[in-house]
C-alpha cells in the first residue's frame, strides 16, 4: 500500500545568502504539507547566513556547516546523502515556495508512480519581491526541450530520493550541473512538469553576466563530450555555434547595462496571470 503522507526532504544549500535566506526558510515553514525535513547546508558563508539559519527553532530544520567552501555541486550531492525522506525537493536560498508547493508535488508523485522527477511552473520576481512574469514549462520534457528551452526550473524540482542517489550531480559542470543531469538522464527517466506556478524565482535585479558566461562555457565543454550524451556531431556543432552567439549577445547587452531587458525579451511570450492573486500567494508564503 502506497504511503499517502511520505516524508519529504527539502534541501537548501546556501553561501552568503543573508539577504533572502530568511524568506526562503519561512516559505518552507508555511507549507500546507507538514511531513517534511529541511536541510540547511552552509557552504562556508562569511556573512550572517549561518546565524539566520540557526535562528529558526524548529525540530524539522537541520543546519549543517563544516565552515568550508566546497561549491554547490558538492553540497547538492551531500544533501542527497543526508536526506531521510522518500522524496527529495530542491530549493534555492533566494527563492520563495508557494504554500502548497510540497503538497501538490507529493500528490503528483504518489499518484504517478512512473514519474522520477517533477518540476513546476513559476513566477519570476525581482529583489523587491515584485512579480514580473510567469513561466509555464513543457509538461513532458524531451531532449529537444533540454537543448532548446528549459527542462525544469532547478529549484522547483522534487523527485524520488533513490533517483537522485543513483544519478548524482557532476562536479565537472559547475553552474550547469542541473542542465547536464537532465540531459544525461532524460532517455532513461520519466520527467514531468506541473503547469501551476508553485515557485517565486528571483531572476531580475541580480547581476547575471559572469554567472551566465560561466554556464555557457560549461555547455561548450559538454558539447565537446557529445558522445556521453548521444549527440550527433552535427547537433553538437550547431549547439556550440548557438552557445558562442549567446555569449556574444549577452556580453554586449551587459556592457550597456540592459541585462534585465534581455530577460524580459526572452519571456515576451509569457503567459497571462492574475497578478493580485499571485501577490497574495507570495505574501502568504512569507508571512
Structural description of this entry:
The protein is globular. The longest helix is centred in the last third of the chain and has 23 residues, at 233-255. It has 287 residues and is of the alpha/beta class. It is built from eleven helices and nine strands. It folds into two domains: 8-206 and 268-286, Alpha-Beta Complex (Spore Coat Polysaccharide Biosynthesis Protein SpsA, Chain A), CATH 3.90.550.10; 209-256. The protein has helices spanning 21-29, 49-54, 72-82, 101-111, 143-148, 161-166, 177-185, 209-224, 233-255, 259-266, 275-286; strands spanning 8-14, 36-42, 61-64, 87-90, 96-97, 117-125, 131-135, 158-160, 191-202. Strands 1, 2, 3, 4, 5, 6, 7, 8 and 9 form a nine-stranded mixed beta sheet that branches. The protein starts with 7 loop residues before the first strand and ends with a helix. Helix 8 (209-224) packs antiparallel against helix 9 (233-255).
